[in-house]
Amino acid sequence: MKNIAILLHLSLVVLYFYMAEVQLNDPDPLYWICTYGFAALFPLSRVFGRDIAKFAPFALGLVVAGLLASAPGFIDYLRSGDYSSLTGSMSLAPYVEYAREFLGLIIATVGILFYWLRPSGGGRSW
Prior knowledge:
Blueprint: H1 2-22, H2 29-47, H3 56-80, H4 94-117
């Protein structure tokens, strides 16, 4: 069971680093690298048996700032009804970029909250 937990933690680390890499061409790549980098630190810390839950409020602050900034564009995306544009190539519609950013930040939020609300300890690796 411990090996499966480590594999899942590492999978999340890879996912968050990939999400940061995709944002490198963004006008504000530093924000995305920091945000997804912090999100990746939580599962990575579990692999090494560390608990960095005390940093979760800071990481969540980064994420909430991005959610607030991208929420209007995400709402525009929902109103457009153009749901297939989310998985397609880059669109001229700016709401597609905001929707992708918003959903990526939701994924980061869920991960950070999981590791914050379920601190390591007591021999539990997951």
